[in-house]
Amino acid sequence: MQIEQLQIFEIDNPHQVSSVEVGQHFYWQIGNLQVHAQVLITSWVVIALLIALPVVATRNLQTIPTGLQNFIEYVLEFIRDLTRTQMGEEEYRPWVPFIGTMFLSIFVSNWSGALLPWRVIQLPHGELAAPTNDINTTVALALLTSVAYFYAGLHKRGFSYFGKYIQPTPVLLPINILEDFTKPLSLSFRLFGNILADELVVAVLVSLVPLIVPVPMMLLGLFTSAIQALISATLAAAYIGESMEGHH
Amino acid sequence: MNTLWAIPAIAEEAEEKGKIFDFNLTLPIIVAEFLLLMLALDNLWFKPVAKVMDERDEAIRQKLMGVRDNSDEIKKLQEQAEAILKAARAETTAELNKMRRETAASLDAKLQESRQRVEKELAEALANLESQKEETLRSLDKQVQELSDQIVAKVIPF
């Protein structure tokens, strides 16, 4: 979205004062398909950050950790604990990379959108922001989660996994099937709505009162976007854990 | 009101689709990026750091086990030391007692010896005194006899 800042004497019509254009994308053409280039560019920056951190931090791993190694060990411990809580002690280990990547990518995406000065780079159309403010990203993550929990259930229990649709009673079959659609829907829209709405609110506030007033909103945005990352990761782990254990 | 007039102008400007719900190739690209990122993070971050953390846990567990064994050894050494101390103490007291008894015995013997000597000398002295007394009595008797003879001679004139 783009906010047009105009000088006071230029304003003829009220609509010029703050026009928030939502949904403006910077398009690249690949073959006869289009992509949202602003999402790809910011996602590459996020990936670069996420890869640079462990490369730097694991350069000299010691038994007694200090500084950066301490931090990355803490993050890994946090992710392991999150996964273990949702999936149980025996089965959580293989899923730590998936849940960890989910949490870290969403967290760094959201915070990069809030903290990095993207506006410095002017795009011909649309602007750079958090990659998670685009429906493509959030639906991609939600679909990955869906595929993950299907795979987990089928891998662990084989075709008896489909027995869970008639648990606890066959009357609930339509609801259980519906759940397979609502889970990714809610995951994607929760993240998308939170991030996009936060960006919109901050953008509007900044266009109206640029100095102090947007700051509490920005801080709240940092907090809620971190929570959203945690929620997305926890729910993904919970769905996977649930499909592996089956209903009792 | 003016804002409403602005909407067609904005719509014309955005001849490309400016939609919020605009799905395109971005979605599968993001999926691919996520999977590649997952592989990269697993090999660069999760595996090495997990290895270090698990090794550290194992080392700590080993050290704890070692410490527990050491405390058994320490207890054994302590018992040994106490046993040695006790033996040494017993030995010294036995020695001391023996010494005491020996000195007491020798003292007793000496005492006995000197007592006997004293008694013997006493008896000797008494015997001496007795014999002297006898002698003196005998001489006295003789003198008394002489004196009485003299008196009789003097008193009875003839």
From TrEMBL, chain A:
Main localization of the protein described in the UniProt heading: membrane
Subcellular location: Membrane; Plastid, Chloroplast thylakoid membrane
Superkingdom as given in the UniProt entry: Eukaryota
InterPro entries reported in the protein's UniProt record: ATP_syn_F0_a_bact/chloroplast, ATP_synth_F0_asu, ATP_synth_F0_asu_AS, F0_ATP_A_sf
Topology versus the membrane: Multi-pass membrane protein
Transmembrane segments: 35-56, 95-115, 135-154, 191-213, 219-240
GO CC aspect terms: chloroplast thylakoid membrane; plasma membrane; proton-transporting ATP synthase complex
Function according to Swiss-Prot or TrEMBL: Key component of the proton channel; it plays a direct role in the translocation of protons across the membrane.
Protein name: ATP synthase subunit a, chloroplastic
Species of the source: Ceratopteris richardii (Triangle waterfern)
Gene transcribed to yield this protein: atpI
UniProtKB/TrEMBL annotation, chain B:
Gene Ontology molecular function, alphabetical: proton-transporting ATPase activity, rotational mechanism
Pfam families: ATP-synt_B (PF00430)
One CC-aspect GO term: proton-transporting ATP synthase complex
Primary site of residence: membrane
Membrane topology: Single-pass membrane protein
Keyword entries, A-Z: CF(0), Coiled coil, Hydrogen ion transport, Ion transport, Membrane, Transmembrane, Transmembrane helix, Transport
Coiled coil region boundaries: 67-150
GO biological process, one term: proton motive force-driven ATP synthesis
Subcellular location: Membrane
Entry function: F(1)F(0) ATP synthase produces ATP from ADP in the presence of a proton or sodium gradient. F-type ATPases consist of two structural domains, F(1) containing the extramembraneous catalytic core and F(0) containing the membrane proton channel, linked together by a central stalk and a peripheral stalk. During catalysis, ATP synthesis in the catalytic domain of F(1) is coupled via a rotary mechanism of the central stalk subunits to proton translocation.
Assigned protein family: Belongs to the ATPase B chain family.
Record protein name field: ATP synthase subunit b', chloroplastic
The organism of origin for this protein: Ceratopteris richardii
Taxonomic lineage of the native organism: Eukaryota, Viridiplantae, Streptophyta, Embryophyta, Tracheophyta
